[in-house]
Automatic annotation (TrEMBL):
SUPFAM superfamilies, A to Z: Cysteine proteinases
InterPro entries documented for this protein: CHAP_dom, Papain-like_cys_pep_sf, Phage_lysozyme2
Pfam family, one: CHAP
Official protein name in the record: CHAP domain-containing protein
Length: 347
């Protein structure tokens, strides 16, 4: 949040002892309950690689895992947010700026005064606690700051994500010297480079296939399908003919996989009750693009079918209506890009 004096950090000796004990005793408390995309790095490893304390490294991991899994941020979005948290609080959930009336990871207003507003008023408890602060983050992201959540879910550039978060979530104008734009962009890239290849996702296994299968017109060299696509038997009852949803529903059925006839628009499939989602690229799953992500429609999102996951982490997808209504086309994504998406597992 926008601040008016230097941040003052106050940690009583006894509390410091308790915090350190918590760090050395195991992972952050919410780490065990999260599912989805999580980093495999430990606090010790992050501390060694970045030069920050192990205590603060545990907070870095806590924030990262939370926004990746709970709020489904892309890797670029999540690491852009880390850069802002580093600027705001140094990843200390107990960081306080008394003059600005702000406190916490993201220096929410309303802590000691309401000179800058009262965002702490939405917290379940006014307490400088990491879990309470992350819950407050979710409350805001699923309320008045939903636009920030949407942008972080589809972000592909960590530097741009950091600038957007700083301006729209923190409320600091890009022209304001407090933005520290160049340092912010540098830090976003630093965190992205550290974490981008360290993520594991969800409960789905990361089975791969490099060879076998069949080729088809338009399939990029080096990739293949397990079965040729034959749209002659595709039905168009609940999903309009030629749309992305029509294709994925029928392509899955062609391979013995079932999705509900009413999954919603392409970007809605990941929210359908009763279906497992993961951030691990999974062959024969549905790749759910958020609105605007990787060229998806800005309002409705997009859905595609994962035809192949290779051992190098790259994926081949098939899709309809990317190049025209009813036109079936193919795209590939490398490992870094593929790990940013949400995959819906059929039945």
């Amino acid at each position: 949040m926008k601040k008016w004096i230097i941040i003052i950090i106050a940690v009583p000796a006894l509390l410091l002892f308790l915090i350190i004990g918590g760090v050395t005793g195991g992972p952050p408390s919410n780490a065990e309950t999260l599912s989805g995309k999580l980093t495999t790095l430990t606090a010790s490893e992050v501390a060694d690689k970045t030069g920050i304390s192990e205590e603060r490294a545990a907070d870095v991991i806590k924030i990262l895992n939370y926004v990746l899994s709970k709020e489904e941020f892309s890797v670029a979005g999540a690491t852009g947010v880390l850069a802002v948290a580093e600027r705001e609080s140094g990843f200390d959930p107990k960081a306080v700026n008394t003059g600005g009336g702000v406190a916490g990871y993201f220096q929410w207003s309303g802590w000691s005064s309401t000179i800058n507003g009262n965002r702490w008023g939405q917290a379940r408890e006014k307490k400088l606690d990491a879990d309470i602060e992350l819950e407050l983050l979710s409350t805001e992201l699923n309320g008045v700051y939903s636009k920030s959540k949407e942008e972080m879910q589809k972000a592909t550039d960590p530097a741009e994500a950091a600038l957007f978060w700083s301006e729209h979530y923190e409320g600091v104008a890009l022209s304001d010297g407090q933005t520290k734009a160049e340092q912010l962009k540098k830090d976003a890239k630093k965190w992205y480079d550290l974490f981008k290849d360290t993520l594991s996702g969800g409960e789905s296994s990361a089975e791969t296939r490099d060879g076998g299968g069949v080729s088809a017109d338009g399939v990029p060299e080096g990739y293949s399908l397990t079965k040729a696509i034959d749209t002659s038997g595709y039905v168009a009852s609940s999903y309009p003919w030629g749309q992305c949803t029509w294709f994925v529903f029928n392509r899955a059925k062609e391979l013995g996989i079932t999705f509900d006839p009413y999954m919603g628009n392409g970007g809605d499939w990941k929210s359908k009750a009763g279906y497992q989602t993961t951030n691990t690229p999974t062959e024969h799953s549905a790749l759910c693009f958020a609105p605007g992500q990787a060229g998806a429609d800005g309002t409705y999102g997009h859905i595609a079918f994962v035809e192949q996951v290779k051992s190098d982490g790259s994926i081949l997808i098939s899709e309809s209506n990317a190049n025209g209504l009813g036109v079936i086309s193919y795209r590939t994504f490398d490992k870094a890009a593929a790990n940013q998406f949400t995959y819906v597992i059929g039945k």
